[in-house]
Amino acid sequence: MKPTDQSDSEDELNAESHKKSLEKLKKIDPDFYNFLEENDENLLNFDEDSEDDKDEESDDDDATVHVPGPLKGDSDESDFEDEEAKPVRGKISLKMVSQWQAELQSDGRVKLATLTTVIKAFNAAMMRATSEDGTSEGEYKVEGSSIFNAVIQMCVLYLPNAIKKYLGTEQSGKDPKSCKHFVKVKGPLSAYLTDLLKLLGGVTSENILTVLLKHLHQMCVYVACFGRTAKQALKKLIVFWSTGEETVRVLAFLCILRITRNQQATLLDKVLKTMYMTYVKNCKFVSPSTWPGINFMRRSLVEMFTLDLNVSYQHVFLYIRQLAIHLRNAIVVQKIESRQAVYNWQFINSLHLWADLLAATSNKSQLQPLTYPLVMVITNTIKLVPTHQYYPLRFHCVEILINLSKETNTFIPILPFLVEVLTTYDFNKKHKKVSMKPLDFSCILRCAKSQLMENGFKDSVIERVYALLLEYTASISHTICFPDVMLLAVIKLKQFQKTCSVANYTKKLRQLLEKMEENSKFIEIERSKVSFALSDDKMVTAWETSIRTKGTPLLTYYENWNKVNKIQKRKKISKNDEIAGELPKIKRPKLANEEGAKPKNEKKGPMVLFPSDSEDDNIKFGEEDTKPTKVKKTKKKKEARKKIPQEETDDIVDKEDIVQDFSVTEW
Description:
Layout: H1 3-28, H2 30-39, H3 41-44, H4 46-64, H5 76-83, H6 94-104, H7 112-130, H8 145-167, H9 182-202, H10 206-223, H11 227-243, H12 246-262, H13 264-282, H14 291-305, H15 309-333, H16 336-340, H17 345-360, H18 371-384, H19 391-408, H20 415-424, H21 449-452, H22 455-475, H23 482-485, H24 487-499, H25 503-528, H26 537-550, H27 553-574, H28 576-582, H29 621-626, H30 629-641, H31 646-655
Helix pairs in contact: 1-2, 6-8, 7-8, 7-9, 9-10, 9-11, 10-12, 11-12, 11-13, 12-13, 13-14, 14-17, 15-18, 17-19, 18-19, 19-22, 20-22, 20-24, 22-25, 22-27, 24-25
């Protein structure tokens, strides 16, 4: 028997058994059989359909098997199309992008189909950017940089407003999750945000990064709706916040702040911890170039910690406790390793951060109990190694204490740490090295032994002591206890005047001493008019505020000094003097009536129609020396008679002025 006959007989047997089972079903469950009759007649007429199918198949076989078609070489794309169920719609053109753009900008409500199509186009652009061969596979294809840029630009500029129109949150500003249409757009929106984060991770240009971060800031409301996407976004944004350029840092922080506020209950705790650890890692090395970034991170961290002071208290308490443990180990163990755990920039910048935070929240009670332990950590840090080498660290700690005392309106005994410098160090000792400028203590914590021998070290110490004493005394110059607090400092300053033989140092500190004594007399006179008891806190506070508004001699002196000091600091940061010394000199032709001026018609050879100012630079001095001196003398005598008028020479110089084309930024 042939194989075809066997298959036919098997099909007939299957048809008969199927008919018998259907007859049984009719007897057992007539309702179900009626249902099949109404809804699926093909199932009951099994034999007829199969025969028809056989006929059709045989016809098809006759038509296709015996007539061979042309041979075709299949590509990789055709294999992909066979495997994938979704067909490729084709390339995206600029016309399609402009059409989608018009639909996104329409006044009415944006269609969901338009949003999903635009998001798929963005995904195709991302596939092109991330693929090795620069092609995108999916419903759309993006080919060429112009199409890629057009798709990205369309999404960045018009997609946020289009989503707002679709959800109806243009003016209300309500949570997108509460909108009834959010469920429909949730899936495409999540995919778009994931692609946007991928794009952010692959961009290196600062300008493009700022544009994308501004776009992400608009989309932060939707980022907060997806927990996993929000964590991924925060992870990347914290990196930008700590390592990017100035504009990138600011935009990254604004995005972090917005995402955290929208999901504060779940994200704040982790964000505070991650940002603080990132701050500590990135403030290990301090230089004039890194100071602005560290200051920005510190101020922005203070902003983040003030979002919820109850949550922040746990973090601040824990980190101040860690600093105290490091300090205790350094005091007890007395080894170099334990001392280095305290005397480093990470420790000092952490103290600076917590002092700024307590100063910013001085009007709220949650964090104020931590002021005392922080002050104790700072003061004992100064006392750990009170040698001359660590004077820069002492001045940094004193500066932190002064700011904390001013902002929190708390008395902190700061004067002994400054007066001690004047009494313990011998300023009469002759220096072994000469330095042109004072040492800059702003970016160092410890001086080298060679620096201690320079005269610049002593100059810097006196400058810092003078500035810090003036700042602190001016901050408490309005208090009722000022004459009593200043007594010890005045005695030590007078003693320094007698012992120090360097005129510049004594003269500088004598001015401060005179102002302190003048302010003490002013407070004593005002205090003699008081009729209330010193135990009456309310009356004392009211009296001190009235004195502050009236003004004190020391405060006015400090304000004038501070203005000049700020200008000097700006000059030092911008390095105006150094830049001015390196500016290129502009060469102008000398006038005929000036000494050393060269006559106009001295040149030999063909006449040049448009001579330039730089022709003198091309003269070869070897050729000049070979010329006879007699010719020079006769030429000078002849040309001396012809004088060029002053107005003509001014016109020549104005026309060829180099300054017009000169740009400092390009140079």
